[in-house]
């Protein structure tokens, strides 16, 4: 930087010709109050061999006032002005970073002065904000989004109760996150490949996975696509481009990047979409995925549901950054923060993120702020770490389903009768699907050993027969509805 100033200084002072840059002309400060001649400027001078030399000559100060007027004015008590040497912006060519020099010893603060704002279009009462540019959405699409949110809510309520009654072993609800599930799904295309965590069954529902298929999976019956080998809610569907959920948190993220890279190689008109929670962003896989996504320029949209909790761990015990959105910049990824309880805002953001991901072949990070209204899972009791008033506030005042309903009602696209009808139909459909799935028998015992290899290898055949022997010896410990013959 400032090499024309340095050249001028060198010409007029005793500085050696090897001096290459000066970083502190505007930072020169008095070390006594007795006058301009006692300013120190020299500490900022480095010679070509990298050694610094102090320099306090009157000569320098005299010349300084000739060649660097802003600095001199500052030294003599006039208001500070930016140093505007044209080579301030000289691009440096270190292999690790292309940048300019600065004379300021200044660390980047850990957080920006203001948190990243959150994009929203509807207020808590479902009214568009005055400046909001609403996305193109006709009555049919709006009703479809709303009715899917209701179906998801209803499925969650009934399946949750069924689990409590012991009909299946485990369940997780999406309460509070219905808009993230459905509105984001609506903004994607069926060709986009999805890698989800576990709190996003609504996306699968949007793509046409039937209530009975959900129930088959939760019961682990013979029609479960996973043949009962996964815990409930670990859905998957090859037909619907929805990769099977796996329990270890964040493993889906690098997988999504790999899939996106494949789509890029194929020149496909599709992207990969990875959904995950704030807790998943605390895993190493998140960071690896982000970095690879950036350097490989993969068409992947990361959608983080920041619901404030990773089971009982609040976000401020997980990270000290301004949420997840700022991490995008750390990896060179474009990012945005959106209100995860505003279906319209989510729809707009995901549509645009998808467009950028595919057309510009780049990753995009979306942080959707939301709240997990239910317990983490049926194995959790969130009243142990959150107070009821907090939960009630989000459940009653901030409900994303109700917010969207108010918006469609204001358009005349929905009314009390349609609400009654859809709620009772959804309830009947979920109960029917669940009862049907509950009556089906379990997958055959041998299914435990199949589908990894083309044909079952000898060591697995051996395990299969050992298992049968154990079951024959202790029949009381094994379910009777699993066919073994
Ligand atoms: C690698 C790994 N560590 C820990 C767990 C246990 N675990 C299951 S869910 C969860 C919390 C995840 O929180 P978040 O990603 O915020 O999702 P949310 O449940 O809030 O939707 C944890 C720690 C796990 N499944 N995998
Ligand atoms: Mg969370």
From TrEMBL:
It is found in: Mitochondrion matrix. Its main location: mitochondrion. SUPFAM superfamilies: Thiamin diphosphate-binding fold (THDP-binding) (SSF52518). The keyword Oxidoreductase applies. One of its GO terms (biological process) is branched-chain amino acid catabolic process. Its cofactor is thiamine diphosphate. One of its GO terms (cellular component) is mitochondrial matrix. Keywords: Metal-binding, Mitochondrion, Oxidoreductase, Potassium, Transit peptide. Gene3D superfamilies: 3.40.50.970. It catalyses: N(6)-[(R)-lipoyl]-L-lysyl-[protein] + 3-methyl-2-oxobutanoate + H(+) = N(6)-[(R)-S(8)-2-methylpropanoyldihydrolipoyl]-L-lysyl-[protein] + CO2. It holds the Pfam family E1_dh. Belongs to the BCKDHA family. Heterotetramer of alpha and beta chains. This is 3-methyl-2-oxobutanoate dehydrogenase (2-methylpropanoyl-transferring). It comes from Riccia sorocarpa.
């Amino acid at each position: 930087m400032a090499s024309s100033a340095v050249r001028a200084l060198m010409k007029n002072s005793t500085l050696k010709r090897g001096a290459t840059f000066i970083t502190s002309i505007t930072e020169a400060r008095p070390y006594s109050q007795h006058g301009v001649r006692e300013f120190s400027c020299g500490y900022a001078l480095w010679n070509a061999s990298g050694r610094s030399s102090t320099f306090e000559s009157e000569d320098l100060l005299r010349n300084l006032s000739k060649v660097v007027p802003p600095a001199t004015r500052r030294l003599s008590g006039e208001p500070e002005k930016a140093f505007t040497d044209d080579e301030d912006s000289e691009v440096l060519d270190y292999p690790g970073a292309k940048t300019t020099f600065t004379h300021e010893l200044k660390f980047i603060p850990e957080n920006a002065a203001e948190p990243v704002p959150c994009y929203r279009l509807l207020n808590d009462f479902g009214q568009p904000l005055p400046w909001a540019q609403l996305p193109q959405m006709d009555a049919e699409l709006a009703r479809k989004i709303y009715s899917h949110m209701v179906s998801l809510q209803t499925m969650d309520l009934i399946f949750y109760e069924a689990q409590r009654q012991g009909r299946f072993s485990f369940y997780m609800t999406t309460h509070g996150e219905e808009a993230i599930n459905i509105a984001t799904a609506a903004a994607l295309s069926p060709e986009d490949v999805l890698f989800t965590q576990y709190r996003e069954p609504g996306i699968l529902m949007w793509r046409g996975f039937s209530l009975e298929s959900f129930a088959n999976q939760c019961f682990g019956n013979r029609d479960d696509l996973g043949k009962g080998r996964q815990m409930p809610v670990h859905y998957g569907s090859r037909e619907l481009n929805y990769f099977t959920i796996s329990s270890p948190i964040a493993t889906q993220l690098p997988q999504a990047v790999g899939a996106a890279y494949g789509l890029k190689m194929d020149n496909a008109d599709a992207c990969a979409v990875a959904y995950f929670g704030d807790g998943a962003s605390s895993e190493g896989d998140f960071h690896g995925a982000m970095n690879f996504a950036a350097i490989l320029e993969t068409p992947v949209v990361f959608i983080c549901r920041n619901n404030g909790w990773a089971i009982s761990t609040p976000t401020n015990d997980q990270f000290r950054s301004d949420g997840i959105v700022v991490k995008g910049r750390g990896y060179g990824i474009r990012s945005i923060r959106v209100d995860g309880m505003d279906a319209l805002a989510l729809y707009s953001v995901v549509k645009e993120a998808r467009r950028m991901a595919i057309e510009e072949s780049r990753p995009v990070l979306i942080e959707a702020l939301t709240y997990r209204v239910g317990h983490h899972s049926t194995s959790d009791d969130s009243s142990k770490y959150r107070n009821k008033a907090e939960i009630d506030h989000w459940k009653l005042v901030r409900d994303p389903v109700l917010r969207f309903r108010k918006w469609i009602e204001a358009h005349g696209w929905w009314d009390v009768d349609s609400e009654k009808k859809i709620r009772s139909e959804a309830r009947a459909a979920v109960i029917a699907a669940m009862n049907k799935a509950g009556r089906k028998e379990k997958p055959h015992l041998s299914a435990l050993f199949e589908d990894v290899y083309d044909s079952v290898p000898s060591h697995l055949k051996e395990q299969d027969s050992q298992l049968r022997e154990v079951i024959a010896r202790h029949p009381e410990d094994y379910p009777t509805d699993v066919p073994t013959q």
